[in-house]
């Protein structure tokens, strides 16, 4: 899979040589503890870095330089995993072999260098206009979740279920925290990120590994940093009672979200068993939820479950007619009860294993997913391969599913639905 | 079996048209784990008035029927097709557009078994009153879900404004009311008319051995019997170049107003190479007028008239076409003015210089090469191109020879003064 090179303390390079793609991918990830204020700063910072550098101070000059390099892609994004916040810089360019006489890749390194080490900063402050503009963009992005009722309902459910917990803290931060950012505070965040974050660099493509290592040393001279283990998530104490919350907006379809706790999370030895259990419950079109809530009762277009493994949460989402809430909740819980009673079949189990296998092997066909999946699983196993995970899935039994299902405990039923006075 | 090499792209495709008229295209991809297979019929939501197979009279069917049929193909007498795919580790799906219905799966093993399931389930219809009625609840929820999505309403509202008669203005899924009229007999009529192999294309891309796979498909098709192919007769109402409704506003519970400008394309009788040149040119024009490097974007972004939702697109098919530019914005009036001004100004002072054209050409070529990493992109786009008598692998050579005149010509097809419409989604007044 990936070959690892330690560049400095806390700075690692992962290279994968493959002839599969027409492009070369370079991704840099900065990882730091997750908190709301910092998340806001880092999100605005990621936007600002993507837009301009000292060499290319305007968005237009920056984008023109990328267009000249045969539409080279360069963008940033933020995300979270467990109690970690990540800023990622994604770049991708067409392999030089397709264009005789070009040196696109070399120029890409220069661009990355310019974005990372030479941002548009004067007197320890980012450009105030750019800062204000990107504050506005990030604030609008946070606010626009309101327009997507499924995402909004999920966000509300998590906020109520896990207040002030990484599970419900947005990787984008909050509108209030964004508004407090200044071009000076943004620079302080930049320095902090450059000096203290754990850094992982990924390169995937038809490249020469030794060349890459040399080029990175030359263009991306990150200094050593303290690679001490970052803070871990504390166990959540779950009360036995179920919280029922109904909220209203002007809308037609009811968004039903159920949150369940499980002590089995990503680092738990039974993690792979819970992946299978979730698949049998509601991960696929053969799963119990799809077959019973959608196909048998025609109540929903979608009725799925998902396993947020880093937070020990299983959740179910379904779009239903709000009048049918009670019936839908009953039907969903019946599917879980069936699993808890051991009412799953060998067919359901092998279908789930086959589709999970398919999805992890398919992920191999995109450089981005190769990077994302490895970046996650290397926390469990530095020598992670899809084959090892598949072996574990194949060893899961019906008894395991029963056992896993019995750790799943309903915490919240959340329904977002239309106001009664809505007239169409 | 025909082999065609695309040396510049380092790709090779294998094609054959079988005796029953089915076109099969195979593209092996070096180093890939999965194979992606699409089985597509040239039949979509706009095909609502047509002569049924073997009949002489035109009929008009209820709205949303192509999409309804897509749903119903998965249910058979012995159960749900998803179950069979799942057992073989294949992830299956389907989608319906204005002009196509595609059935697909992706799998990392058992390619032949899965291809067999795909061919069989699409070529063996099974509809009953009971299963058709049952589906109405599911599709009603799907329609209701889209009703709550402001971006979808914005997009569709704009198309509704643009067209007076053409069925492209009808929602692909129909309405909760229109789908109630759909019967099993309707589904059989549409199926028999549009699902003949001669109206379909099978595309196989990824970890596949072309000779072996072609032989497998050929053998499978030879065993099945089909009627003689007939030319499918569709009818579309006449449509003027003017927009139907110049402006409309919808109130929804959104965080910020949404504005979309639609421009109706006035040249919609193109196919083949001419269509390819026009759509690539129109895309380059929109890039230069509204892209991240344009004067428009610099101004709109600096003044806060647009945000990250800003987008533009050009869409062209036989019979209809449009350009759209839109964004969430706190100042829809000012943004509208700036977009209109940008178009108007381009007519007087052509803004694209030779160096811009070169740069954008490079960008598009790189983008295209990058998208060839995605086997989903290749299969879906190849089929769309083929149905319009174009070839996906002509994109790069065509881009290389596009001239400034061609860009001006393409711009003229959607910049007519009578071809604009505005659609807004506004939050309720407090």
What does this structure look like?
The complex is a heterodimer of chains A (424) and B (430). In chain A, 43% of the residues lie in helices and 22% in strands. Chain A is built from 15 helices and 13 strands. In chain A, the strands form 3 sheets. Chain A has a 6-stranded mixed β-sheet with strand order 1-2-8-3-5-4, sandwiched between helices. In chain A, strands 9-13-10-12-11 form a 5-stranded mixed β-sheet, sandwiched between helices. In chain A, a hairpin with a 2-residue loop joins β1 and β2. The model of chain A has no long low-confidence stretch (mean pLDDT 95). The mean pLDDT of chain B is 97. With 430 residues, chain B is of the alpha+beta class. Chain B is built from 14 helices and 16 strands. Chains A and B meet through α2, β5, α4, α10 and α12 of A and α2, α4, α9 and α11 of B.
Oligomer: heterodimer
Query: Which class best fits the helix and strand makeup of chain A?
Result: alpha+beta
Measured on Cα atoms, how large is the radius of gyration of chain A? 23 Å
Q: Which strand order do you get reading across the main beta sheet of chain A?
A: 1-2-8-3-5-4
Given helix and strand content, the structural type of chain B is alpha+beta
Average pLDDT taken over every residue of chain B: 97
* Rg value of chain B: 23 Å
List keywords for this structure.
heterodimer, A: 424 residues, alpha+beta, six-stranded mixed sheet, 15 helices, 43% helix, globular, B: 430 residues, seven-stranded mixed sheet, 14 helices
Write the layout of secondary structure elements.
The complex is a heterodimer of chains A (424) and B (430).
Chain A lengths: L2 E6 L2 E7 L5 E11 L2 H16 L7 H10 L4 E9 L2 E11 L9 H14 L3 E2 L2 E2 L1 H16 L5 H13 L13 H5 L3 H14 L1 E8 L3 H11 L23 E7 L4 E8 L9 H13 L4 H9 L6 E6 L4 E8 L4 H16 L5 H18 L3 H11 L8 H9 L3 H8 L3 E10 L6
Parallel strand pairs in A: 2-8, 9-13
Antiparallel strand pairs in A: 1-2, 3-5, 3-8, 4-5, 6-7, 10-12, 10-13, 11-12
Chain B lengths: L1 E5 L4 E7 L5 E6 L6 E7 L7 E2 L8 E2 L4 H8 L2 E2 L2 E2 H7 L3 E6 L4 E7 L3 H13 L5 H19 L2 H13 L21 H11 L5 E7 L3 H14 L23 E5 L6 E7 L7 H19 L4 H8 L8 E7 L2 E9 L3 H17 L5 H18 L3 H13 L7 H7 L2 H9 L7 E7 L4
Parallel strand pairs in B: 3-11, 12-16
Antiparallel strand pairs in B: 1-2, 2-3, 4-10, 4-11, 5-6, 7-8, 9-10, 13-15, 13-16, 14-15
């Amino acid at each position: 899979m990936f070959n690892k090179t330690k560049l400095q303390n806390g700075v690692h390079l992962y290279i994968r040589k493959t002839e599969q793609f027409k492009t070369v991918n370079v991704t840099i990830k900065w990882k730091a503890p997750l908190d709301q204020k910092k998340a806001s700063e880092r999100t605005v910072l990621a936007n600002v870095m993507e837009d301009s550098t000292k060499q290319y101070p305007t968005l237009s000059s920056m984008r023109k330089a990328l267009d000249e390099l045969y539409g080279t892609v360069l963008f940033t994004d933020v995300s979270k995993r467990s109690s970690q916040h990540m800023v990622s810089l994604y770049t991708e360019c067409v392999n030089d072999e397709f264009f005789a006489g070009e040196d696109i890749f070399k120029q890409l390194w220069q661009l990355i260098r310019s974005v990372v080490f030479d941002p548009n900063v004067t007197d320890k402050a980012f450009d105030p206009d750019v800062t204000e503009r990107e504050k506005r963009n990030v604030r609008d992005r946070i606010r626009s979740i309101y327009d997507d009722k499924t995402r909004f309902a999920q966000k509300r459910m998590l906020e109520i279920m896990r207040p002030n917990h990484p599970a419900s803290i947005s990787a984008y931060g909050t509108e209030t925290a964004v508004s407090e950012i200044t071009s000076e505070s943004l620079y302080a965040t930049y320095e902090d990120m450059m000096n203290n974050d754990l850094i992982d660099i990924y390169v995937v493509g038809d490249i020469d590994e030794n060349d890459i290592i040399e080029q990175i040393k030359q263009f991306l001279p990150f200094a050593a940093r303290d690679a001490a283990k970052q803070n871990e998530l504390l166990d959540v104490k779950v009360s036995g009672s179920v919280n029922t919350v109904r909220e209203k907006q002007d809308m037609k379809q009811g968004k039903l979200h159920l949150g369940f706790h499980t002590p089995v999370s990503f680092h738990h030895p039974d993690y792979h068993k819970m992946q299978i259990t979730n698949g049998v419950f509601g991960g696929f079109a053969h799963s119990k939820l799809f077959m019973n809530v959608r196909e048998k009762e025609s109540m929903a277009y979608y009725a799925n479950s998902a396993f947020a493994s880093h937070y020990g949460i299983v959740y179910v989402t379904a779009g239903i007619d709000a009048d049918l809430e009670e019936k839908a909740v009953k039907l969903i819980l019946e599917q879980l009860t069936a699993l808890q009673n051991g009412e799953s079949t060998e067919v359901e189990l092998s279908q789930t294993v086959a589709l999970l296998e398919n999805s992890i092997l398919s992920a191999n066909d995109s450089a981005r997913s190769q990077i994302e999946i490895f970046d996650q699983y290397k926390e469990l196993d530095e020598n992670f391969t899809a084959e090892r995970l598949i072996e574990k899935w194949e060893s899961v039994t019906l008894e395991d599913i029963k056992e896993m299902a019995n750790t799943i405990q309903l915490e919240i039923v959340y329904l977002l639905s239309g106001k009664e006075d809505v007239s169409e | 079996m025909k082999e065609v090499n695309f040396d510049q792209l380092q790709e090779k495709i294998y094609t054959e048209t079988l005796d029953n008229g089915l076109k099969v295209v195979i593209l092996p991809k070096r180093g890939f784990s999965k194979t992606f297979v699409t089985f597509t019929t040239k039949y979509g939501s706009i095909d609502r008035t047509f002569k049924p197979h073997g009949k002489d009279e035109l009929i008009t069917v209820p709205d949303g029927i192509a999409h309804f049929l897509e749903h119903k193909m998965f249910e058979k007498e012995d159960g749900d097709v998803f179950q069979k795919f799942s057992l073989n580790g294949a992830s299956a799906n389907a989608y319906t557009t204005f002009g196509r219905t595609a059935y697909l799966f992706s799998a990392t093993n058992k390619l032949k078994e899965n291809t067999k399931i795909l061919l069989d389930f699409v070529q063996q219809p099974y509809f009953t009153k009971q299963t058709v009625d049952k589906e109405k609840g599911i599709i009603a929820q799907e329609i209701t879900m889209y009703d709550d999505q402001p971006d979808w309403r914005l997009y569709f509202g704009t198309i509704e404004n643009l067209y007076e008669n053409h069925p492209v203005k009808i929602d692909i899924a129909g309405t909760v009311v229109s789908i109630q009229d759909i019967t099993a007999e309707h589904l059989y009529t549409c199926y028999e008319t549009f699902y003949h192999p001669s109206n379909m294309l099978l595309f196989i891309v990824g970890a596949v051995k072309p000779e072996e796979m072609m032989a497998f498909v050929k053998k499978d098709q030879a065993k099945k019997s089909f009627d003689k192919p007939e030319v499918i007769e569709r009818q579309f109402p006449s449509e003027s170049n003017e927009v139907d409704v110049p402006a409309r506003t919808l109130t929804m519970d959104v965080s910020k107003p949404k504005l979309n400008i639609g421009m109706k394309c006035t040249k919609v009788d193109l196919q083949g190479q001419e269509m390819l040149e026009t759509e690539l040119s129109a895309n380059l024009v929109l890039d230069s007028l509204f892209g991240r490097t344009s004067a428009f974007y610099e101004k709109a972004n600096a003044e806060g008239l647009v945000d990250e939702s800003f987008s533009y697109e050009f869409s062209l098919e036989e019979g209809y076409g449009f350009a759209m530019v839109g964004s969430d914005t706190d100042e829809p009036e000012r943004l509208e003015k700036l977009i209109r001004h940008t178009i108007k100004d381009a007519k007087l002072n052509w803004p694209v210089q030779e160096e811009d054209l070169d740069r954008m050409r490079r960008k598009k070529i790189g983008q295209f090469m990058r998208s060839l990493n995605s086997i989903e992109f290749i299969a879906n786009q190849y089929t769309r191109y083929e149905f319009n008598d174009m070839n996906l692998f002509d994109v790069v050579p065509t881009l290389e020879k596009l001239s400034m005149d061609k860009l001006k010509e393409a711009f003229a097809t959607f910049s007519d003064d009578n071809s604009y419409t505005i659609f807004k989604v506004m939050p309720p007044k407090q």
